[in-house]
Fold:
Amino acid sequence: MKLTLERSALLNALSHVQNVVERRNTIPILSNVLLVAEGSALRLTATDLDIEAIDEAEARVADGGSVTAPAQTLFDVVRKLPNGSDIELELQPENQRLAIRSGRSDFALPTLPASDFQTMAGEQEGKRFEISAADLRRLIDKTRFAISTEETRYYLNGVYLHGTESDGVQVLRTVATDGHRLALAEIAAPKGAEALAGVIVPRKAVGEIRRLIDGLDETVTVDVSDARIVFRAGKAVLTSKLIDGSFPDYARVIPQGNDKKMVIDNKSFEQAVDRVSTVSTERSRSVKLSLSSGKLVLAVNHAETGQGHEEIEADYGSDAMEVGFNAKYLLDVAGQIESDTAEFMFNDPASPALVLDPADPAARYVLMPLRV
Structure:
């Protein structure tokens, strides 16, 4: 195998696949990336057996062939080579090392046979639809912060993707929750996704597809079967197993009758929460919100770490109320609000609060209160 290609092309393809590789691996071949040189391209594949990423880089192939090399080391070497340089890759048959040459730089990495590399099985029957990269980014960004990290509730360790009906319109919806908060986003359902059965896309796959489509303005093709989901963007392909479990009936926890409305300047609220939570305990990070006519008072009072207190203007005309929330959860939601103002809908201090974005009515957030 021998080929030459531009550093930027190789780095771009490597950046799309190498993050799939687990840093600590008991199976050596899974630390490697599969390199296949044929035609006028170098195809790169990486997998952890749950997720597989493939991308291509245009290359001048002198001798075709395939081999695997350490993904992280190869990425680091290429990343540190000069911008605009050409890179020559050659498999040295005498010692089965992958030579990497660029200008006066010369490296040789250990390899393992391509025949030992395990790829995920071929395509399965399922639903196929196309979605713009911008819409997919929005569905991911508006919800992924609420994915649970608690491994015992594995069915919450991802984003729930499904087609459903909302106000008489077919929508494609994403939902994530960790049991303490919930985030929901939706778009008009693309053709083919109207009746998409619910699937749970794992947290790692969500992060990888988000990285893959960052900055793209093209269409992404999505294939969904009972066990897998496949994203195709240009020449890049990301395949992931789905979480085998039942996502909870999230509609039951979205408040319907909350009639106490508070409208606040989102930036002022975010900054106030950030300031007063400085003295909250790390475990609960509880912040008490005291609502009264025309104002909101945020307070933290802890015997060991100190006190914090701040008042901001609020459009609120219902009965005075005190309610507590996790400061991090408040900040996460505030970070998703696109409007200058955020709308909080309350029922009572013990019931979930609904947070709405006037600039994005297709997104909703639910926060469970803390005892104060």
Notes: The longest helix spans residues 7-17. The longest strand covers residues 158-166. The radius of gyration is 25 Å. Residues 2-116 form a domain with the DNA Polymerase III; Chain A, domain 2 fold (CATH 3.10.150.10).
